[in-house]
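Q: I'm writing up a methods section and want to include an example of the input and output format. Could you take the sequence below and give the corresponding predicted structure tokens, formatted cleanly so I can copy it straight into the document?
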Amino acid sequence: MLILGLDQSITRTGFALYEYPGDERRMQCGSFSCKDAGGPEEKCEMFARQIKRLIGPKEGRPDFIVWERAKRQITRYPKKPNANLLGIQDAIWTVNADQLLLPEIQGIVRAAAILYRIPHESVPPATWRAAIYGKGGGKLARDDAKERAKAYCKSLGIEAGNEDEAEAACIARWGATCSQQFRLLAAGVAA
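A: Here is the clean output for your methods example:
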């Protein structure tokens, strides 16, 4: 069965195609970016076209899609403070605009899976990281988790060109080895 693992974002989406059961070293990894597409609508439309390219053709269409679930909370951070009329520094808070698009692009993946009738599942980052990396893996900081993904892929002989491809490969492995939905699907295919 062919599993498509996704570590999606507007900046760079990593993907991995994993034929399971099979040799991890034969996993095909790649990535694409939508950050230069213009405004939010254009970025999402470009993302949708890339997802269609990945799962649309009948030949090589995945049997299962698994992706990293977008956080429901948006992180904010302080910008450089500005002085108000009284000369007091006001703290200005902002968010990463591309982070606001994560739920929308997650919806694009889910809609494509539904339209193409492909079984699918989203998984929280802490869940797949704990299962793949072991104890404490679910609590890693973002940069540490990305480094761990590259090391994990290297240890298995998976050729991932960047950390997003490496995380997509780890997500695909989680789907193959930990997803209850995938296990039920595989059991139904095997029967």
